[in-house]
Amino acid sequence: MYDLPLLISFLWMGTAGILASQNRAEDTKLASQAGNDSSANHKPAKETIWASSLARAALLSLPFIGFWALEISQAPPEVRQFRILVTLGAVLPLGSLAFLRHELLDRERLRLLRASQESIDNLKRLQMQFVQSEKLASIGQLVGGAAHEINNPLTAILGYSELLAEDLSLGEKTRGLAEKIREQARRTKTLVNNLLSFARQVPSEQRSPVDINTIVNTSAQFRRFDLRGKNIRIEVQTGAGVPEVRADMNQLLQVFSNIINNAVYAMQEAGGGTLTVRTLFEKGNVVILFSDTGPGLRDPRLVFDPFYTTKPVGKGTGLGLSICYGLIQDQGGQISCYNRPEGGATFRIELPAVPSAFPFSPRSVVSPSRNNPAKIA
Ligand code: ADP
Questions:
Q1: Considering the domain 128-198, what is its CATH architecture?
Q2: Is the beta carbon of 194 within 6 A of some atom in ligand 1?
Q3: 312 Cα–ligand 1 center, Å
Q4: Is the pLDDT of residue 317 over 70?
Q5: Whose CA is nearest to atom 7 of ligand 1?
């Protein structure tokens, strides 16, 4: 008679396993239907609680059954011995099942923990992008209006000072003064142009597929001319098979030159160094990395803010990288910067590659149209 409930219980254990796997499939389906609705009330199913309580009770009952068979039962010694053996034998599968369950639960918890950490990181990044974009947009509006107003009288000052400076009927001293006015007016005009391009009121040229490696090489070449004797090197490591990007070539040249100029300035202050420019293809984006061996960024969170500069008066306006930020944003890309642990600053630009230009290899068929990239600072 003892064998009958034993057999039923073993059969039930098997059935419970099958039912559990079916429940799990249903749970997964429900979870995917609920999507990301965090307000959904995920209460554990009643059956799950019952099943785990029964399993725990079964495991805990084993020593009692063993003790009963050994000390209390009046059955013949062979039967008692058989029962003890069965009880001991049951410890192994039940114990292993309990361990397995714990292991699976641990893994699931770890996976959920990682997923929620990732969500929090994404949320923080989005928040930063939003704040940065809003800040730039509102300052851009203000600055754009003011720059427009200044531009008109400035053009007149520049024009009249040019007339005076070239008027030979005037004395040498007067023409000298006119020349000085013209120089200052030109400087102001450059600043106003910077302000206008920061406010993005300078229309962008036609976009077309461009080769990033060529633009990187050209920007580096421009700057190499006046680096002789300055103990500063610019190394370009272009990645093979980097696809084209759809962009305005002149704007990219402006961005790259600005980053290179900043790096050269920083390394010059430190007595020399090397700027390494690398291009590579990663997850459907063309990535350009500018890493210098200078002193690093004083505050990486502020470098894209308009008018943030650590350069002395007259040397920097603090608009260069804010303009770059806007330009890269316009091209559908993202720009970020950080200090490397070993020293020096790195600027990273990501631009979406032209889909048709992806190199045809299985590895490159990864998320070509990544949802429009985050524009982060
Ligand atoms: P500006 O060059 O007129 O100061 P930018 O917007 O181009 O304006 O740069 C803002 C600031 O970012 C710089 O003043 C400097 O403090 C910092 N910066 C940019 N690039 C680097 C770099 N490679 N190393 C250290 N600091 C840098």
A1: Orthogonal Bundle (1.10)
A2: no
A3: 11
A4: yes
A5: 320
